[in-house]
Amino acid sequence: MYVAVKGGERAIENAHAWLAEERRGDPSIDELSVAQIREQLSLAVNRVMAEGSLFDPDLAALAIKQARGDLIEAIFLIRAYRTTLPRFGSSEPIETSDMQCDRRISATFKDVPGGQILGPTFDYTHRLIDFKLAADGEIPDAAEVPTDPEPVPHVTGFLNKEGLIEEALDDEEAPRDLTREPLELPADRALRLQALTRADEGFTLGMAYSTQRGYARNHAFVGELRIGTVPVEMDIPELGFAIEIGEITVTECESVNQFKGSKTERPQFTRGYGLVFGQTERKAISMALVDRALRWEELGEDFVGAPAQDAEFVLYHGDNIQATGFLEHIKLPHYVDFQSELELVRKLRREAGASQVQEAAE
Protein backbone atom coordinates (compact mmCIF):
# COMPACT_ATOMS: atom_id res chain seq x y z
CA MET A 1 0.00 0.00 0.00
CA TYR A 2 2.77 2.43 0.91
CA VAL A 3 5.49 3.77 -1.36
CA ALA A 4 8.84 2.24 -0.38
CA VAL A 5 11.14 4.61 1.46
CA LYS A 6 14.82 3.98 0.88
CA GLY A 7 16.96 3.95 4.01
CA GLY A 8 13.90 3.61 6.26
CA GLU A 9 15.43 1.07 8.66
CA ARG A 10 18.55 3.15 9.18
CA ALA A 11 16.46 6.27 9.78
CA ILE A 12 14.39 4.45 12.39
CA GLU A 13 17.51 3.24 14.19
CA ASN A 14 18.81 6.80 14.28
CA ALA A 15 15.45 7.98 15.62
CA HIS A 16 15.69 5.42 18.43
CA ALA A 17 19.20 6.56 19.28
CA TRP A 18 18.13 10.19 19.26
CA LEU A 19 15.17 9.38 21.49
CA ALA A 20 17.46 7.68 24.02
CA GLU A 21 19.74 10.72 23.99
CA GLU A 22 16.85 13.12 24.54
CA ARG A 23 15.48 10.93 27.30
CA ARG A 24 18.79 11.02 29.18
CA GLY A 25 19.19 14.78 28.75
CA ASP A 26 22.35 16.59 29.76
CA PRO A 27 24.81 13.87 30.87
CA SER A 28 26.47 16.33 33.25
CA ILE A 29 23.30 16.25 35.38
CA ASP A 30 22.67 13.23 37.60
CA GLU A 31 20.32 10.68 36.08
CA LEU A 32 16.85 10.46 37.58
CA SER A 33 16.43 7.12 39.34
CA VAL A 34 13.32 4.94 39.37
CA ALA A 35 13.23 5.22 43.17
CA GLN A 36 13.19 9.02 42.94
CA ILE A 37 10.28 8.95 40.52
CA ARG A 38 8.40 6.46 42.67
CA GLU A 39 8.85 8.45 45.88
CA GLN A 40 8.75 12.06 44.64
CA LEU A 41 6.39 11.86 41.65
CA SER A 42 3.97 9.52 43.38
CA LEU A 43 0.78 11.11 41.99
CA ALA A 44 2.02 10.56 38.44
CA VAL A 45 2.93 6.98 39.39
CA ASN A 46 -0.57 6.48 40.83
CA ARG A 47 -2.22 7.67 37.63
CA VAL A 48 -0.12 5.34 35.49
CA MET A 49 -1.00 2.39 37.72
CA ALA A 50 -4.72 3.26 37.70
CA GLU A 51 -5.10 3.74 33.96
CA GLY A 52 -2.65 0.93 33.21
CA SER A 53 -4.64 -1.50 35.39
CA LEU A 54 -1.57 -2.76 37.21
CA PHE A 55 -0.58 -1.96 40.79
CA ASP A 56 3.21 -1.85 40.77
CA PRO A 57 4.80 1.49 41.79
CA ASP A 58 8.31 0.48 40.69
CA LEU A 59 7.15 -0.61 37.25
CA ALA A 60 5.02 2.51 36.82
CA ALA A 61 7.99 4.68 37.78
CA LEU A 62 10.18 2.87 35.25
CA ALA A 63 7.55 3.39 32.54
CA ILE A 64 7.44 7.13 33.33
CA LYS A 65 11.21 7.32 33.03
CA GLN A 66 11.20 5.45 29.72
CA ALA A 67 8.35 7.63 28.40
CA ARG A 68 10.18 10.87 29.30
CA GLY A 69 7.29 11.88 31.54
CA ASP A 70 4.59 11.28 28.92
CA LEU A 71 2.02 9.61 31.17
CA ILE A 72 -0.16 8.26 28.37
CA GLU A 73 2.90 6.63 26.78
CA ALA A 74 3.80 5.21 30.21
CA ILE A 75 0.26 3.85 30.60
CA PHE A 76 0.61 2.24 27.16
CA LEU A 77 3.87 0.56 28.27
CA ILE A 78 2.23 -0.75 31.46
CA ARG A 79 -0.78 -2.17 29.63
CA ALA A 80 1.44 -3.83 27.04
CA TYR A 81 3.57 -5.40 29.76
CA ARG A 82 0.47 -6.49 31.67
CA THR A 83 -0.67 -8.64 28.76
CA THR A 84 2.50 -10.74 29.07
CA LEU A 85 1.90 -11.67 32.70
CA PRO A 86 0.43 -15.07 33.62
CA ARG A 87 -2.73 -15.11 35.72
CA PHE A 88 -2.57 -17.42 38.72
CA GLY A 89 -6.03 -16.69 40.05
CA SER A 90 -8.38 -13.97 41.22
CA SER A 91 -8.30 -12.11 44.51
CA GLU A 92 -11.29 -11.67 46.77
CA PRO A 93 -13.16 -8.33 46.57
CA ILE A 94 -11.37 -5.81 48.75
CA GLU A 95 -13.18 -4.52 51.85
CA THR A 96 -12.81 -0.76 51.89
CA SER A 97 -14.48 -0.69 55.31
CA ASP A 98 -11.21 -2.20 56.59
CA MET A 99 -9.15 0.61 55.08
CA GLN A 100 -6.45 2.24 57.16
CA CYS A 101 -7.18 5.80 56.09
CA ASP A 102 -4.49 8.36 55.40
CA ARG A 103 -7.19 10.77 54.26
CA ARG A 104 -10.92 10.69 54.90
CA ILE A 105 -13.29 13.60 54.42
CA SER A 106 -17.01 14.12 54.03
CA ALA A 107 -18.80 17.11 52.54
CA THR A 108 -22.17 15.98 53.92
CA PHE A 109 -21.53 15.61 57.66
CA LYS A 110 -19.16 17.67 59.77
CA ASP A 111 -18.93 15.30 62.73
CA VAL A 112 -18.56 11.66 61.76
CA PRO A 113 -17.27 8.72 63.81
CA GLY A 114 -13.55 8.46 63.21
CA GLY A 115 -13.34 12.16 62.42
CA GLN A 116 -12.31 14.05 59.32
CA ILE A 117 -8.73 13.19 58.36
CA LEU A 118 -7.28 15.87 56.09
CA GLY A 119 -4.21 13.86 55.11
CA PRO A 120 -1.69 14.90 52.45
CA THR A 121 -3.58 17.22 50.10
CA PHE A 122 -3.21 20.34 48.00
CA ASP A 123 -6.65 21.54 49.14
CA TYR A 124 -5.32 23.92 51.77
CA THR A 125 -2.22 25.18 49.98
CA HIS A 126 -2.02 28.66 48.44
CA ARG A 127 -1.02 27.50 44.96
CA LEU A 128 2.07 29.68 45.03
CA ILE A 129 5.37 28.49 43.58
CA ASP A 130 7.63 27.47 46.47
CA PHE A 131 11.10 28.47 45.34
CA LYS A 132 12.60 26.78 48.39
CA LEU A 133 12.02 23.49 46.57
CA ALA A 134 14.67 24.55 44.07
CA ALA A 135 17.25 24.18 46.85
CA ASP A 136 18.83 20.73 46.81
CA GLY A 137 18.71 18.58 49.89
CA GLU A 138 15.66 20.14 51.54
CA ILE A 139 14.19 18.01 54.33
CA PRO A 140 10.54 18.79 55.14
CA ASP A 141 9.26 18.97 58.69
CA ALA A 142 8.00 15.63 59.93
CA ALA A 143 4.21 15.34 59.99
CA GLU A 144 2.28 13.80 62.86
CA VAL A 145 0.97 10.64 61.26
CA PRO A 146 -1.12 8.24 63.39
CA THR A 147 0.30 4.76 63.55
CA ASP A 148 -2.01 1.84 62.72
CA PRO A 149 -5.21 3.91 62.42
CA GLU A 150 -8.40 2.06 63.17
CA PRO A 151 -10.88 1.38 60.34
CA VAL A 152 -13.75 3.87 60.22
CA PRO A 153 -17.33 3.30 59.02
CA HIS A 154 -18.59 4.56 55.68
CA VAL A 155 -20.46 7.85 55.95
CA THR A 156 -23.26 6.73 53.63
CA GLY A 157 -24.06 4.03 56.18
CA PHE A 158 -25.69 6.69 58.37
CA LEU A 159 -28.09 7.61 55.58
CA ASN A 160 -28.66 3.93 54.91
CA LYS A 161 -29.81 3.33 58.50
CA GLU A 162 -32.63 5.83 57.98
CA GLY A 163 -33.52 4.44 54.59
CA LEU A 164 -32.72 7.78 52.98
CA ILE A 165 -30.33 6.40 50.36
CA GLU A 166 -30.63 3.51 47.97
CA GLU A 167 -29.08 0.30 49.17
CA ALA A 168 -25.79 -0.77 47.67
CA LEU A 169 -26.72 -4.07 46.08
CA ASP A 170 -24.17 -6.82 45.65
CA ASP A 171 -23.98 -8.39 42.20
CA GLU A 172 -24.07 -12.15 42.59
CA GLU A 173 -22.59 -12.77 39.15
CA ALA A 174 -18.88 -12.33 38.55
CA PRO A 175 -18.38 -9.22 36.41
CA ARG A 176 -16.80 -9.42 33.00
CA ASP A 177 -13.09 -8.57 32.93
CA LEU A 178 -12.43 -5.58 30.70
CA THR A 179 -8.68 -6.27 30.73
CA ARG A 180 -9.24 -9.62 29.03
CA GLU A 181 -12.40 -9.07 26.99
CA PRO A 182 -13.28 -6.25 24.58
CA LEU A 183 -15.88 -3.73 25.66
CA GLU A 184 -19.36 -4.57 24.43
CA LEU A 185 -22.57 -2.61 24.78
CA PRO A 186 -24.92 -2.59 26.52
CA ALA A 187 -22.57 -2.59 29.51
CA ASP A 188 -23.77 -3.25 33.04
CA ARG A 189 -22.65 -1.05 35.89
CA ALA A 190 -19.73 -3.28 36.91
CA LEU A 191 -18.28 -3.07 33.40
CA ARG A 192 -18.91 0.68 33.22
CA LEU A 193 -17.03 1.18 36.48
CA GLN A 194 -14.08 -0.82 35.14
CA ALA A 195 -13.99 1.35 32.04
CA LEU A 196 -14.16 4.55 34.09
CA THR A 197 -11.34 3.39 36.37
CA ARG A 198 -9.09 2.89 33.32
CA ALA A 199 -10.35 5.99 31.51
CA ASP A 200 -8.24 9.06 30.92
CA GLU A 201 -8.34 11.35 33.95
CA GLY A 202 -8.75 14.50 31.87
CA PHE A 203 -11.62 13.03 29.86
CA THR A 204 -13.39 11.79 33.00
CA LEU A 205 -12.89 15.16 34.66
CA GLY A 206 -14.42 16.91 31.65
CA MET A 207 -17.43 14.59 31.69
CA ALA A 208 -17.90 15.10 35.43
CA TYR A 209 -17.61 18.87 35.07
CA SER A 210 -20.26 18.83 32.38
CA THR A 211 -22.70 17.16 34.79
CA GLN A 212 -22.08 19.88 37.36
CA ARG A 213 -22.79 22.59 34.76
CA GLY A 214 -26.22 21.13 34.08
CA TYR A 215 -25.63 18.66 31.25
CA ALA A 216 -27.16 15.76 33.18
CA ARG A 217 -29.11 17.30 36.08
CA ASN A 218 -26.62 15.72 38.43
CA HIS A 219 -25.94 17.84 41.53
CA ALA A 220 -23.73 15.74 43.77
CA PHE A 221 -22.26 15.92 47.25
CA VAL A 222 -19.13 14.04 48.22
CA GLY A 223 -20.59 11.73 50.81
CA GLU A 224 -17.13 10.44 51.53
CA LEU A 225 -13.68 10.45 50.04
CA ARG A 226 -11.18 8.09 51.61
CA ILE A 227 -7.60 7.16 50.74
CA GLY A 228 -5.64 4.41 52.41
CA THR A 229 -4.35 0.87 52.34
CA VAL A 230 -6.50 -2.23 52.16
CA PRO A 231 -5.46 -5.88 52.39
CA VAL A 232 -5.73 -8.07 49.32
CA GLU A 233 -6.77 -11.66 49.91
CA MET A 234 -6.70 -14.64 47.61
CA ASP A 235 -8.50 -17.93 48.00
CA ILE A 236 -6.10 -20.89 48.03
CA PRO A 237 -7.94 -24.07 46.98
CA GLU A 238 -5.40 -26.31 48.70
CA LEU A 239 -6.02 -24.55 52.02
CA GLY A 240 -9.74 -24.06 51.66
CA PHE A 241 -9.67 -20.43 52.81
CA ALA A 242 -8.38 -17.04 51.75
CA ILE A 243 -5.05 -15.62 52.90
CA GLU A 244 -3.68 -12.08 52.75
CA ILE A 245 -1.13 -11.72 49.94
CA GLY A 246 -0.37 -8.01 50.25
CA GLU A 247 -1.73 -4.50 50.55
CA ILE A 248 -2.61 -1.85 48.01
CA THR A 249 -3.41 1.85 48.27
CA VAL A 250 -6.72 2.95 46.80
CA THR A 251 -8.91 6.03 46.63
CA GLU A 252 -12.66 5.56 47.12
CA CYS A 253 -15.39 8.13 46.59
CA GLU A 254 -19.11 7.81 47.22
CA SER A 255 -21.22 10.67 45.96
CA VAL A 256 -24.69 11.43 47.27
CA ASN A 257 -27.21 12.72 44.76
CA GLN A 258 -30.73 14.01 45.28
CA PHE A 259 -33.36 11.90 43.53
CA LYS A 260 -36.93 13.15 43.26
CA GLY A 261 -38.26 9.73 42.42
CA SER A 262 -39.78 8.16 39.36
CA LYS A 263 -42.63 5.87 38.40
CA THR A 264 -40.75 2.93 39.89
CA GLU A 265 -38.62 4.51 42.65
CA ARG A 266 -39.53 6.68 45.64
CA PRO A 267 -37.67 9.92 46.49
CA GLN A 268 -34.35 9.29 48.17
CA PHE A 269 -30.66 9.89 47.77
CA THR A 270 -28.78 7.85 45.20
CA ARG A 271 -25.14 6.90 44.91
CA GLY A 272 -22.28 7.41 42.52
CA TYR A 273 -19.12 5.41 43.02
CA GLY A 274 -15.44 5.69 42.21
CA LEU A 275 -12.51 3.44 43.14
CA VAL A 276 -9.00 3.96 41.78
CA PHE A 277 -5.47 2.75 42.55
CA GLY A 278 -3.28 5.05 44.65
CA GLN A 279 -4.04 8.58 45.77
CA THR A 280 -6.07 9.66 42.78
CA GLU A 281 -8.89 11.67 44.31
CA ARG A 282 -9.68 13.95 41.35
CA LYS A 283 -10.22 10.85 39.23
CA ALA A 284 -12.27 9.04 41.90
CA ILE A 285 -14.62 12.01 42.38
CA SER A 286 -15.00 12.45 38.62
CA MET A 287 -15.68 8.75 38.24
CA ALA A 288 -18.42 8.87 40.89
CA LEU A 289 -20.18 11.77 39.14
CA VAL A 290 -20.04 10.12 35.73
CA ASP A 291 -21.15 6.77 37.18
CA ARG A 292 -24.26 8.45 38.59
CA ALA A 293 -25.01 10.20 35.29
CA LEU A 294 -24.83 6.89 33.44
CA ARG A 295 -27.42 5.34 35.77
CA TRP A 296 -30.29 7.46 34.42
CA GLU A 297 -32.04 4.53 32.74
CA GLU A 298 -32.01 2.10 35.66
CA LEU A 299 -33.35 4.85 37.94
CA GLY A 300 -36.16 5.69 35.55
CA GLU A 301 -34.92 9.21 34.80
CA ASP A 302 -35.29 11.07 31.52
CA PHE A 303 -32.48 11.11 29.01
CA VAL A 304 -31.75 14.78 28.44
CA GLY A 305 -29.13 14.26 25.76
CA ALA A 306 -26.16 15.02 27.99
CA PRO A 307 -22.83 13.52 26.86
CA ALA A 308 -22.21 12.04 30.31
CA GLN A 309 -25.48 10.10 30.04
CA ASP A 310 -24.46 8.43 26.79
CA ALA A 311 -22.72 5.18 27.73
CA GLU A 312 -21.43 4.56 24.22
CA PHE A 313 -19.92 8.05 23.99
CA VAL A 314 -18.32 7.92 27.45
CA LEU A 315 -17.01 4.36 27.47
CA TYR A 316 -15.68 4.27 23.90
CA HIS A 317 -13.98 7.66 24.03
CA GLY A 318 -12.55 7.62 27.55
CA ASP A 319 -9.78 5.10 26.91
CA ASN A 320 -6.68 7.17 26.19
CA ILE A 321 -4.73 4.23 24.77
CA GLN A 322 -7.35 3.47 22.12
CA ALA A 323 -7.75 7.18 21.42
CA THR A 324 -3.99 7.68 21.13
CA GLY A 325 -3.60 4.72 18.79
CA PHE A 326 -6.30 5.91 16.43
CA LEU A 327 -5.18 9.53 16.60
CA GLU A 328 -1.47 8.96 16.10
CA HIS A 329 -1.85 6.46 13.27
CA ILE A 330 -2.72 9.36 10.95
CA LYS A 331 0.88 10.60 11.15
CA LEU A 332 2.08 7.34 9.59
CA PRO A 333 2.51 7.11 5.79
CA HIS A 334 -0.78 7.43 3.92
CA TYR A 335 0.77 8.27 0.56
CA VAL A 336 -1.50 6.11 -1.62
CA ASP A 337 -4.66 7.30 0.13
CA PHE A 338 -3.69 10.94 -0.25
CA GLN A 339 -2.63 10.54 -3.89
CA SER A 340 -6.02 9.08 -4.78
CA GLU A 341 -7.81 11.98 -3.05
CA LEU A 342 -5.44 14.45 -4.71
CA GLU A 343 -6.29 13.07 -8.14
CA LEU A 344 -9.99 13.18 -7.31
CA VAL A 345 -9.81 16.86 -6.28
CA ARG A 346 -7.84 17.71 -9.46
CA LYS A 347 -10.43 15.94 -11.59
CA LEU A 348 -13.30 17.76 -9.89
CA ARG A 349 -11.54 21.11 -10.40
CA ARG A 350 -11.01 20.35 -14.11
CA GLU A 351 -14.64 19.39 -14.54
CA ALA A 352 -15.79 22.49 -12.66
CA GLY A 353 -13.52 24.67 -14.80
CA ALA A 354 -14.79 23.13 -18.03
CA SER A 355 -18.37 23.65 -16.87
CA GLN A 356 -17.73 27.31 -16.16
CA VAL A 357 -16.14 27.82 -19.61
CA GLN A 358 -19.12 26.18 -21.27
CA GLU A 359 -21.58 28.35 -19.36
CA ALA A 360 -19.63 31.50 -20.28
CA ALA A 361 -19.67 30.47 -23.96
CA GLU A 362 -23.45 30.00 -23.91
SSE blueprint:
Blueprint lengths: L7 H17 L9 H7 L1 H11 L4 H10 L4 H12 L17 E6 L50 H6 L27 H10 L2 H12 L7 E17 L4 E19 L8 E10 L3 H14 L16 H7 L2 H9 L6 H27 L1
Antiparallel strand pairs: 1-2, 2-3, 3-4
Question: How would you summarize this macromolecular structure in one to three sentences?
Answer:
This protein is α+β, with helices and mostly antiparallel strands and about 350 residues long. The protein has helices spanning about 10-25, 35-40, 40-50, 55-65, 70-80, 155-160, 190-200, 200-210, 280-295, 310-315, 320-330, 335-360, and strands at about 100-105, 220-235, 240-260, 270-275.
Fill in the keyword field for this structure.
2 domains; single chain; disordered N terminus; alpha+beta; globular; 362 residues
CA-based gyration radius: 26 Å
What count of structural domains?
A: 2
> Secondary-structure element order, as H and E?
HHHHHEHHHEEEHHHH
Q: State which percent range the strand residues make up.
A: 5-15%
**Total number of helical segments?**
12
> What value does the average pLDDT take?
86
Cα(first) to Cα(last) distance is 45 Å
Question: Biggest sheet, open or closed, and with what strands and sense?
Answer: 4 strands, antiparallel
The unreliable regions are 1-5
In helices, the fraction of residues equals 25-40%
Shape: globular
Physical arrangement of strands within the biggest beta sheet: 1-2-3-4
Q: What is the count of β-strands?
A: 4
| Secondary-structure-derived class | alpha+beta
